[in-house]
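User: Sequence recovery, please. Input:
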């Protein structure tokens, strides 16, 4: 008789426990313990800074290179629609967040997330780990190689970067993700010691509520547009996509939800061949919900620290983020991991800010995935309409 599989203690529960422990420990433990965590956080900071360019090259290069397979008119239309929708989601998030968040976060200006924010608490020692290449160079290198692989017959190079992707994905899964809760706990220890933790938690809850409302509005918008073009009732189509939505809530994986998404899309009246092509492709390149969340979280953290929000810089950030998102599926925490390089190179986020981005993003991870997956149904309706003409 087979033993029942053990339930894994997921990343979200671990992050929540880490935050709570960090707050308690920051209030009651002596300074020498906090200095120990500051030392760990400094080492993790340096390691993460070393890894970010490698993450960009390892995830983005094969993701762009593999899109070139099966090129054709239908692929071109699907990619354009998916990218356009992802950018629109980011812009919608930007304008909504800049309008609503200042009133929610006005008390949090100047909050610092680094151990240095606490006077007198410094790491016992530091080991510099300089990156082999800077982030912007890694971005350009990844784009150039990915496009070259997509449009050239370089099977050896393609295989090399596919295998390199597996190494980077393994490093994220085995090293970065397991250590991340400990790092976040150290950050909240420092904030608790300065009395900032309560304000940060209160603002996190308000921000999550706004982002959840935005993702519902985004789905309604997507299906209204798709329904008007495909001559389909948008509310009925959205209702037929609900099994995929709730499956994605449970799995937090676009790839794992593909069989359910396929069935839902076909129930919406999409041709089986179009559905079989569109759904797996969109699971890779369409991450409107993730882009919306990352944009909103970035604005929230910048407002917390009193940083200026420059519209032109954020639009450039969203355009780059839409490309980076193709590297997200199939990697634990893929969307936010793929975004780390752009957060650093465009918005100037340091590793402590990036860690807080990860914590805030993870709190809504399943809702972002559900938004991505359900939106794939709207794209399938549009592609089906194009294919029928």
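Assistant: Recovered sequence (389 residues):
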């Amino acid at each position: 008789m087979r033993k029942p599989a053990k339930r894994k203690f997921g990343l979200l529960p671990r992050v929540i426990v880490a935050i709570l422990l960090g707050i308690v420990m920051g209030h009651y433990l002596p300074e020498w313990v906090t200095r120990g965590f500051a030392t760990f956080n400094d080492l993790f900071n340096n390691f993460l800074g070393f890894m970010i360019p490698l993450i960009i090259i390892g995830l983005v290069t094969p993701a762009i290179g593999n899109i070139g397979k099966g090129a054709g008119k239908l692929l071109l239309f699907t990619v354009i629609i998916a990218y356009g929708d992802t950018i629109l989601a980011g812009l919608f998030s930007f304008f909504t967040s800049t309008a609503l968040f200042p009133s929610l976060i006005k008390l949090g200006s100047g909050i610092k997330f680094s151990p240095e924010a606490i006077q007198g608490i410094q790491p016992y020692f530091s080991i510099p780990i300089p990156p082999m290449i800077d982030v912007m160079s890694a971005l350009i290198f990844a784009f150039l190689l990915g496009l070259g692989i997509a449009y050239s017959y370089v099977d050896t190079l393609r295989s090399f970067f596919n295998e390199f992707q597996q190494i980077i994905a393994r490093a994220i899964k085995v090293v970065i993700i397991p250590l991340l809760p400990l790092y976040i706990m150290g950050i909240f220890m420092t904030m608790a010691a300065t009395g900032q933790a309560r304000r940060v938690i209160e603002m996190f809850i308000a921000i999550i509520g706004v982002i959840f409302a935005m993702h519902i509005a985004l789905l309604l918008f997507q299906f209204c547009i798709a329904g008007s073009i495909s001559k389909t009732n948008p509310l009925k189509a959205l209702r037929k996509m609900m099994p995929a939505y709730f499956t994605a809530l449970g799995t937090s994986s676009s790839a794992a939800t593909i069989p359910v998404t396929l069935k839902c899309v076909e129930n919406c009246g999409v041709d089986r061949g179009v559905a079989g092509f569109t759904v797996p492709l969109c699971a890779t390149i369409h991450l409107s919900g993730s882009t919306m969340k990352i944009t909103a979280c970035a604005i929230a953290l910048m407002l917390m620290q009193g940083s200026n929000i420059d519209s032109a810089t954020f639009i450039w950030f969203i355009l780059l983020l839409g490309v980076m998102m193709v590297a997200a599926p199939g990697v634990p925490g893929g969307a936010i991991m793929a975004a780390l390089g752009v957060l650093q190179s465009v918005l100037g986020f340091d590793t402590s800010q990036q860690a807080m981005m990860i914590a805030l993003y993870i709190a809504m991870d399943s809702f972002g995935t559900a938004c991505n997956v359900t939106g794939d149904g709207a794209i399938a309706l549009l592609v089906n309409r194009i294919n029928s003409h």
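The chain is about 75% helix and 0% strand.
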